[in-house]
Amino acid sequence: MRCNPNFVKEVEQALAAKGLDKDATIITMCRSGSERGLPSAEFLRENGFKNARYVVNGFQGGSVKEGEHKGFRVKNGWQNANLPWQSKANSDKIYRNEK
Description:
The chain is an alpha+beta fold and 99 residues long. It has one domain. The protein has 2 helices and 2 strands, in the order αβαβ. It has a two-stranded parallel sheet. The protein is elongated, with a radius of gyration of 15 Å. The model has no long low-confidence stretch (mean pLDDT 87).
């Protein structure tokens, strides 16, 4: 997995733009909850953001291993818990690794 070399600086700038500092609560999230969300929160904590957390099970959650919905991500996660979200993401708030 590629890392954003400016991640810490960009998070600091985003917080400052909102009048916040490294003590603010930061929530990271990825699709399944552990591959990017957890390491991002851990990295932020290692760099002085003591209140960095991640969403367990991520946005879509894990996939079902058996039954009618085998292979589909329908068992947990933000979306499946009926928490608020919308399908149109703000592209200015998304970091993507360009290959």
